[in-house]
Amino acid sequence: MRFKFTEQQDALRREVKDFLEKEWDEEAQLRAEEAGELASGHSPTLHQKVASKGLVALNWPTEYGGRGWTPIEMAIFAEELGYHKVLDGVYRNTMIIGNSICHFGTDEQKKKYLPDIAAGKTLFSIGYTEPNAGSDLASLETRAAEDGDEYVINGVKVFNTGGHIASYCWLATRTDPDAPKHRGISVFIVDLKSPGITIRPLHNVADGHGQNELVFQDVRVPKENMVGEKNRGWYLMAKALDIERIRTSPSGRHQRVLEMLIEYCKETKRNGIPLIKDPLVRQQIVQLYTEAKAARLISYKVIYQQSKGEIPDVPASMAKLSGSELSQKIAHLGMQLLGPRSIIHGSSKWSAMNGELEHMVRETITYTISAGASEIQRMVIAGRGLGLPRG
Fold this sequence. Notes:
The protein is α+β, with helices and mostly antiparallel strands and 391 residues long. The chain has 13 helices and ten strands. Helix content is 48%, strand content 16%. Helix 6 (89-104) runs antiparallel to helix 7 (107-118), helix 9 (249-267) runs antiparallel to helix 10 (279-307) and helix 9 runs parallel beside helix 11 (313-338).
């Protein structure tokens, strides 16, 4: 394995870093949070600025607004997004939805949706989770019944991020209720302005509104809005989930917060002695720093396999498991070191680390659940990776 980036890839990292440092400073982040954009995962203004630089769809074909680069370049981009605490909407739109349309969509779907995604004009939300289908996603009950040239959709989706500001929903439905649960699922692109859709806000413990409940009642969707083959949506979803699990943005986030924690410990004294000189503090930071480097390498191994046309399902679960649990470990250590200041918002003069840790504490609560709970990742690693029998 070659542990070195090319000159082109290093130049891309500098380009992205310079752009974000100029356009996404601490004041811009605070304004986005006050506007509720951090909770929803999308800032329209920032997204369009990123798109104007041609940095949204790096690995797409050039005819659809991309640069035709490899997954490694996209991973570098995602890592810098994470380091600068940029919103997930950019990543969700391009890597998860856009890439799926590139792989499974018809020519008409590619022409219709990809240019606007690349330009930052169109935002998607993802409609997977339901009240009775979370970790066991194949148990979803939302139905799509064929009726002439349309499908009629009924059901409920929950924890739908950004649905209140999105144009479309990437919706998983059951199109064959009699088939085995993994074989009767299809995916649709649904216009969220369609009659029969009700969007209800789901506020989190910090009173942030980023997620929603979507209710579909006799919603009519044209047949041409189905993505991929009928009843084979599970395979499409599995590929999209692999992409979601292997993103490298957490690696950038880990690096940023650990750097800030180290600076805080250098500047903060306890009993007249800098925290960084406490042996226990040093050991804990070094342990997490080591885990962060290992998690980053796992992510890049997965990206490397992808660039070779391989299907890295087990390494993807390893990357998701290590990255999400490490995020919570870093947040927990930060709370121990900062004490009460760890939960003071960055807009307050009493906040520490510009509120970086406070935001991380809130955002990482769901990391071990979303995109597949840690228990699911361990089952994938045990079964597919180690050949262990099902428990």
